[in-house]
Design a protein that fits this description.
heterodimer; A: alpha/beta; 4-stranded parallel sheet; 22 helices; globular; B: alpha/beta; 6-stranded parallel sheet; 14 strands
């Protein structure tokens, strides 16, 4: 048992559902107790999805517990197959129902006999892997299933596309700024003259999976979701992949050069050096920012970075290499990826911390007293407590990570956005510091009595102890208004002492 | 026959039970409001990553500074019984005691503790004795309960910890005890209260002489004050609330005490108070809306043989004060998909407001505990001349959405998962969860309920001339 106040990554079934509902026309059935289907709420609320989330829970209740699911799961799969005619139904248990050890594979087999679409059981261990690992695995499982199916049916297309082309793998629903990154990468590919064959899995049909092999290479921008699929495609179809995260000016250039090599190995003749140079020096503002006087003032400032492997590693490199900021601590909660992370950031930071314990990270931040933090929502709150500014660079996702406007982290526009994030984090921090130093804009004490206080005294109004106590229970941001309206009401009614009863009578009368 | 057909309503409410493939929140969500209500408590949810991520994400309650609730996250070794449950829980509770020193630790059992048959009730007394902090065990699991019923499981467990008159007297200092002896039972009951309140009570109009009354249900403190004052106006003294602001102030509950619930989802708590503590339950409609509040007060009065004063005028005055809101919803239709078990009370109130209720989905329908509310709903429909709504227990969301698209109600009150997709199809929605967290009880909060109910209508009224009612390309194949 583990005492936990905070989780950096969700449970496995969330990862599976992220993959399943990223595809078009795929439905997921959860074998789960009531309330475990909150994925639907997250997708509907955070992504502001217009369509009903294609996830249905086949409820495990007391009856199921006593007698087993029997026909329930099979019936629900077959029913959904008729109602929505999905290409694929993915069945997943949750941590809870996986302990029941029901023969879900058998359910899937039976259901597939009566279904038009395919039925698949997500193959993950709910106690050994987290959301990210499960997402990576489920995507690979689905790709493998459809490649095998196409091979069996002899429908695997031969050969490559005429022009250089790419599959972008790892874009999912409820990913951290995924949709923005995807748009940015599409733009980048277009500028490089590379066609986007498929984006996986966001917005793709499972029937398109068989065409993945037509692309010249796979691009896997995230460490968390996609590498297993890319590796599988390399083994199975001999497709090369590029897994350099194009975040920051330097890494974006390195990623593009890797793409160049991959393409030229296959007989293309491309040279992206001029493009990289043009983008770096004249189009993107990030490189210029590094040279600007603003950034000079950031030199040597201390920062702590914490997040998933992809974003934390990329951020460390940007801060250290491109901005001259001193990264005192780099950390990730992707414990299973610790080795890779250490290799990536080792030379750019003083200390590495791999942990899922938010308390440990918080304590370390408090000890190090950095000038800024780049972390998750949790570190943002740690920063708030310690009065250290924090830019959020990684999941777990929050409504703030689904801005309506365009905010990529990848590519050249992503580099600009990161500059803004870094600059605002630090300068706002400095502004606070200056305000403190000079005593600020506003005086802290209110020197004049408020209108209502004067009026109350004049009218001979007084608040009784219980009235005041009740007033204190009202949230601060409306308390002043309630107080004024109540006093007005009391004056009109000729009440001298404002009790709790008077307060509520006023609320009723004037909606105070 | 023709005469019968002329009557718009069927003779009785129609109940249905569907597949139960519906979305609602997990009952452990009660932790989110109960830990705030009971200020000296600590809630330990014993479950999996799935439970923890739910609390963190879907509820929007992030566990930040100075949290008073946490997860005891079950890991593989716990599930396969390689670790000793008692030792593990002891380790965690000792660390909670060290860091937070709460007056009570509430263990929230989950689906997983049910499935692995972890004997929480058996472990708690031993551990309680060992670490010296009361441990209350509630099984707020999704196998048996839905959303707000989580609170029911916690309050039912706490009801058993309420002191009897004897126990409360034993705890008091000797001097007070003397006073209590001379003052008789009535005085004794006021002992949990603060000194100054007693003074206020002494100065005011005397209460009627009635048996002790304890109210149950977790509501924000301002509601506690308002309802207490409301009953005080009728000369009725509220002797305590379950839960109180502090666990150490749990109300005295003893044989012959009267109890009344303030929320419709507390049937287990009611049963526990009746069966285990020999209390008498006052079965009334719930004090939501001026009609319900009046019925609730009148029922309590009638049990104590007190003639209620000025209730009719009071109700009328409230209705008059919200006429501007009623104009917006009168004649409109509303559909409840079913989420928080407040559905019957809200449907009754909205019917009285002049709306037509097309369907009431509800996770669980306790016809005995909600009997008075159901009767009032029926009466209200008859009086307002609207058809009786169908009540669908354990609804099927897919079937409901089909019906919604046919009926095209003016307002759908629904859980969070369906709100945006329905709005995108041009259907006004309100999150049911807002009624769970807003202050909706009593006369004074009528305006607040109507503010919530009318907001989607007012908002979409603002947008109606802009021509973008439907924001999906084609009707989704739902």
């Amino acid at each position: 048992m583990k005492l936990a106040y905070w989780m950096y990554a969700g449970p496995a079934h969330i990862g599976t559902l992220r993959i399943a509902s990223s595809f078009k026309n795929v439905h997921a059935i959860m074998h789960a107790p009531l309330g475990d289907d909150y994925f639907n709420v997250m997708r509907s609320m955070l992504e502001r999805e217009r369509d009903f989330t294609p996830v249905t829970a086949s409820i495990v209740d007391r009856n199921v517990l006593a007698r087993g699911s029997q026909e329930k799961v099979v019936d629900n799969i077959v029913r959904k197959d008729k109602e929505e005619q999905p290409d694929l139904i993915v069945l997943t248990p949750t941590c809870t129902s996986s302990i029941l050890q029901e023969d879900l594979a058998n359910f899937v087999q039976r259901a597939s006999l009566d279904s038009q679409g395919d039925v698949l059981l997500a193959d993950v261990n709910h106690y050994r892997v987290n959301e990210l690992q499960a997402a990576d695995r489920t995507l690979q499982q689905i790709v493998q299933f459809y490649l095998a199916k196409a091979r069996k049916q002899g429908t695997l297309p031969e050969g490559k596309t005429e022009k250089p082309s790419v599959n972008i793998i790892g874009m999912t629903t409820l990913g951290f700024h995924n949709n923005h990154d995807c748009r940015e990468l599409r733009t980048l590919m277009a500028q490089l003259g590379i066609e986007v064959n498929l984006v996986m899995p966001e917005g793709a049909l499972v029937t398109q999976i068989k065409d993945m092999g037509r692309a010249w290479f796979n691009l896997v921008p995230y460490r968390e979701v996609g590498p297993l699929t890319a590796e599988y495609l390399k083994e199975e179809l001999g497709m090369p992949y590029v897994d350099i995260t194009p975040m920051g000016i330097v890494e974006t250039a390195r990623c593009i050069r890797a793409i160049q090599t991959v393409l030229n190995d296959q007989g293309a003749d491309v040279n992206y050096d001029a493009f990289i140079d043009e983008q770096t020096r004249f189009v993107s503002q990030a490189a210029w920012f590094s040279r600007s006087i603003d950034c000079q003032n950031l030199t040597g400032k201390k920062a702590v970075v914490f997040g998933d492997s992809t974003h934390a590693a990329a951020m460390v490199k940007i801060l250290a290499r491109e901005m001259g900021i001193h990264v005192v601590l780099a950390g990730t909660y992707c414990k299973y990826d610790a080795e890779w992370f250490a290799a990536e950031v080792g030379e750019y930071c003083d200390e590495i911390l791999v942990s899922e314990d938010n308390g440990e990270i918080g304590d370390r931040i408090a000890q190090l007293e950095p000038a800024a933090i780049f972390g998750t929502q949790m570190e943002r709150h740690v920063g708030k407590r310690l009065d250290i500014p924090c830019g959020v660079i990684a999941a777990p996702i929050h409504i703030q990570n689904f801005p309506v406007g365009y905010r990529p982290f990848m590519g050249y526009e992503g580099a600009n956005q990161i500059v803004d994030l870094v600059y605002n984090s630090f300068t706002l921090g400095m502004e606070d510091h200056l305000l403190e130093f000079f005593g600020g804009h506003d005086t802290k004490e209110i020197l004049t009595k408020t209108m209502s206080a004067d009026a109350a005294v004049e009218a001979g109004l007084g608040w009784s102890a219980d009235g005041l106590a009740e007033l204190q229970k009202i949230p601060g941001f409306v308390r002043g208004k309630v107080k004024r309206n109540t006093e007005k009401f009391a004056r009109e009614q000729g009440v001298a002492s404002i009790t709790a009863e008077v307060l509520y009578a006023a609320k009723e009368a004037v909606g105070a | 026959m023709t005469l019968a057909q002329a009557q718009p309503q069927p003779s009785a409410l129609e109940f249905d039970c569907d597949t139960g493939n519906y979305h609602t929140f997990c009952p452990i969500s009660c932790v989110a409001w109960l830990y705030q209500k009971i200020e000296d408590s600590f809630f330990l949810v014993i479950g999996t990553k799935t439970c923890g991520y739910f609390l963190q994400n879907a509820m929007g309650v992030m566990i930040f500074a100075e949290p008073r609730y946490a997860m005891a996250e079950l890991e593989e070794a716990d599930i396969s019984a390689q670790l000793n449950d008692y030792e593990e829980l002891k380790r965690l509770c000792e660390s909670i005691k060290r860091d937070r020193n709460p007056s009570v630790i509430v263990w929230i059992g989950t689906c997983t503790t049910e499935i692995i048959k972890m004997d929480l009730e058996g472990l708690a007394p031993r551990l309680e004795a060992e670490i010296g902090i009361p441990i209350v065990v509630a099984r707020a699991n999704g196998l048996d309960y839905a959303f707000t019923q989580g609170e029911d499981t916690v309050l039912a467990a706490m009801a058993q910890r309420c002191p009897t008159v004897e126990e409360a007297a034993a705890k008091q200092p000797a001097a007070v005890k003397e006073e209590a002896k001379s003052g008789g039972i009535q005085k004794l009951l006021g002992l949990g209260r603060k000194k100054e309140e007693e003074v206020v009570v002494a100065e005011d109009t005397p209460y009627h002489d009635h048996p002790p009354l304890v109210l149950f249900g977790s509501v924000p403190d301002p509601i506690v004050t308002q309802m207490t004052l409301e009953l005080k106006k009728q000369g009725i003294k509220v002797d305590g609330w379950l839960p109180a602001k502090l666990y150490t102030d749990l109300p005295v509950v003893d044989e012959g005490y009267y109890v009344a619930g303030i929320n419709p989802f507390l049937s287990r708590t009611a049963t526990t108070l009746m069966r285990r503590r020999k209390c008498k339950l006052i079965g009334a409609p719930f004090p939501i809306g001026p009609d319900g509040t009046r019925a609730w007060i009148e029922k309590i009065c009638s049990v104590f043989n007190i003639e209620p004063q000025g209730m009719e005028e009071r109700e009328a005055k409230i209705w008059e004060s919200v006429e501007d809101y009623l104009e917006i919803i009168r004649g409109k239709s509303v559909y409840f998909m079913g989420d928080n078990l407040l559905e019957i009370s809200l449907a009754r109130f909205l019917t009285r407001c002049g709306m037509t209720v097309q369907e009431i989905g509800i996770p669980y329908m306790d016809k005995r505990y909600q009997a008075a509310e159901l009767a009032l709903l029926e009466k209200t429909c008859n009086e307002m001349g609207t058809p009786l709504p169908k009540i669908t227990e354990k609804p099927d969301n897919y079937n409901q959405i089909q019906r919604i698209q046919e009926l095209h109600p003016d307002l759908v009150i629904t859980g969070m998962a369906h709100a945006n997709p329905l709005e995108a199809r041009g259907i006004n929605t309100k999150w049911s969860v807002e009624f769970t967290f807003a202050q909706i009880h009593g006369f004074g909060n009528t305006r607040d309920i109507l503010e919530l109910v009318t907001r989607p209508l007012r908002r979409n009224n603002n947008l109606k001339d802009l021509g973008w009612e439907k924001l999906v390309k084609e009707e989704a194949k739902v």
